[in-house]
Design the sequence.
């Protein structure tokens, strides 16, 4: 997916100002930025709910402005900021909307609907026949995500899809979403206010301000090298700490000179695959200054707080 000099003007005011960036196929690009910075407008121009006043948007090299909007929208999954379920249809009917439009057989729609409801944590036997008004805000959001995923669209547009769910459910939905996205190789444009969500989900993060693209970079680069004070403030003064989510225990230097038997029995056992953030949390909780790194049964060495400290401060 590619934005080329895309602009949107409302009564002389630019809501989106010459936006250009590429989302590689099968990757997730997260748009972040303050309220009113043009995120939703940018998303809606991809499936032509809003028509750009300048520039072009390409999907697989084809200009969306040359496509028939209804055909275009069937190929693009869309989760809107305020969910937008059909109030007079059941949850199951809502989830089956696009498969129905595509003419799938009834049994296939039913099976897919059930699978997706379970996936987003809504027990099908409890939820399938209810109406949207009988669900909480967070449950409705999950139905919105299930509906967008139903026909395995190659492209998904998601506008703050996990905004109304609690942190624990959000974490689970994010992980499920990442799994499905990798499985299906979906190309995703994702909007959020939450910089932590952007860092976790994004292969690339686009920071917007006043309709303009301020920085477009992989999360690690955004955290290490914010291009200006605005981005630095947006990613937070704890950006070093945030970066720990992107680094694994196996990816940093371990102290291999210490025998395992010499390490405090309080020290947590860490796997090379766990993130440095999880390692830090467990090391602090155990009051040990170190963690014991073990890959299956093999002792690899010791991770120290000072190594983590170096990674927090390291700006390269
Ligand atoms: N129909 C419209 N007419 C005039 N101005 C509009 C219209 N829709 C949006 N805007 C303006 O365009 C700008 C960008 O809006 P947009 O909805 O894209 O912001 P956003 O980044 O998604 O914000 P939020 O984080 O609050 O959802 C805002 O200043 C908004 O007021
Ligand atoms: Mg918005």
Sequence:
């Amino acid at each position: 997916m590619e934005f080329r000099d895309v602009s949107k003007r409302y009564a002389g005011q630019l809501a989106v100002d010459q936006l250009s960036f590429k989302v590689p196929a099968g990757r997730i690009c997260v748009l972040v930025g303050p309220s009113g910075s043009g995120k939703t407008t940018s998303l809606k121009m991809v499936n032509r709910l809003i028509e750009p006043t300048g520039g072009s948007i390409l999907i697989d090299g084809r200009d969306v402005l040359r496509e028939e909007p209804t055909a275009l929208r069937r190929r693009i999954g869309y989760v809107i900021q305020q969910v937008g379920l059909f109030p007079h249809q059941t949850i199951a009917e809502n989830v089956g909307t696009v498969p129905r439009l595509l003419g799938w057989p009834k049994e296939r729609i039913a099976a897919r609907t059930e699978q997706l409801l379970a996936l987003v944590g809504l027990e099908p036997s409890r939820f399938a026949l209810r109406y949207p008004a009988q669900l909480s805000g967070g449950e409705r959001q999950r139905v919105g995500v299930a509906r967008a995923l139903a026909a395995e669209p190659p492209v998904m547009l998601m506008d703050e899809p996990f905004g109304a769910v609690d942190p624990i459910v959000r974490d689970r939905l994010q992980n499920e979403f990442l799994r499905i996205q990798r499985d299906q190789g979906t190309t995703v444009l994702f909007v959020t206010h939450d910089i932590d969500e952007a860092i976790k989900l994004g292969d690339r993060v686009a920071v917007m301000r006043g309709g303009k693209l301020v920085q477009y970079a992989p999360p690690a680069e955004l955290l290490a090298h914010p291009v200006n004070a605005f981005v630095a403030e947006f990613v937070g003064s704890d950006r070093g700490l945030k970066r720990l989510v992107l680094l694994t225990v196996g990816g940093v230097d371990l102290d291999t000179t210490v025998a395992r038997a010499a390490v405090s029995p309080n020290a947590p056992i860490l796997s090379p695959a766990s993130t440095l953030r999880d390692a830090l949390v467990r090391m602090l909780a155990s009051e040990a200054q170190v963690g014991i790194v073990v890959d299956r049964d093999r002792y690899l060495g010791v991770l120290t707080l000072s190594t983590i400290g170096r990674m927090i401060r390291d700006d390269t």
In short: The mean pLDDT is 91. The radius of gyration is 22 Å. The chain has 14 helices and 13 strands.
